[in-house]
Design brief:
This protein is mainly α. It has one domain: Tetracycline Repressor, domain 2. The protein contains nine helices and no strands. Helix 7 packs antiparallel against helix 9. It is globular, with a radius of gyration of 19 Å.
């Protein structure tokens, strides 16, 4: 975002700069529209999956695995599909997660609502879990998910290529099991 001019962006998109300024006014307006386009998909789908797992469990609490799966699935199904646009968005998402400036603002505006919604479901799935443990557990869930989405190939290198860092179906099942075990452990320890 900071390294490219509006002219460079227009040239890469094969459009005239005036079209960008007409529709988005500024480079920040264009950037916000790109983020809105992707995050609206995540928010809508994650809400759907969270509501679905709560509906299936009613009148009881949702299963922890279902809640964690609902949060991860929306990301991982796009990784499984291999769409380049989503892969590039995952790289942006990782940058947002690690930028205390603009990234934190973007996370607060676009991702915090679904994070808070997920935390509501996690609280229901883990009654009696302390708030600090729940918050840290969600932080670790998000961090592990981001590490899996932005495939640097490190797990393949470290495993002498015996672990496929792009086997997102396997990543999905291992990640959900790992996070649920960790959440249960830290919730009983507090």
């Amino acid at each position: 975002m900071r390294g490219a001019s509006l002219r460079q962006i227009a040239a890469a998109a094969h459009v005239d700069v005036s079209l960008i300024t007409y529709h988005f006014r500024t480079k920040n307006g264009l950037f916000d529209a790109v983020i809105d386009r992707r995050t609206s998909v995540f928010t809508r789908e994650q809400n759907f999956y969270l509501e679905e797992c709560e509906r299936r469990a009613a009148p009881g609490a949702p299963e922890l695995e279902d809640v964690v799966d609902a949060f991860c699935y929306v990301f991982l199904k796009r990784a499984i599909a291999g769409d380049q646009g989503w892969r590039l968005f995952f790289q942006l998402y990782t940058r947002f997660q690690n930028d205390p400036g603009q990234g934190a603002e973007i996370m607060a505006e676009h991702f915090d609502p679904i994070a808070m919604r997920t935390l509501v479901s996690l609280r229901a799935a883990l009654p009696g879990c302390g708030e600090h443990a729940l918050q840290w557990g969600f932080q670790f869930l998000n961090g592990a998910l981001v590490a899996c989405l932005v495939n640097t190939g490190s797990i393949a290198r470290l495993s002498d290529n015996s672990v496929d860092s792009e086997d997102y179906r396997r990543i999905h099942s291992v990640l959900v099991s790992f996070v649920c075990a960790g959440l249960r452990k830290i919730c009983t320890a507090t």
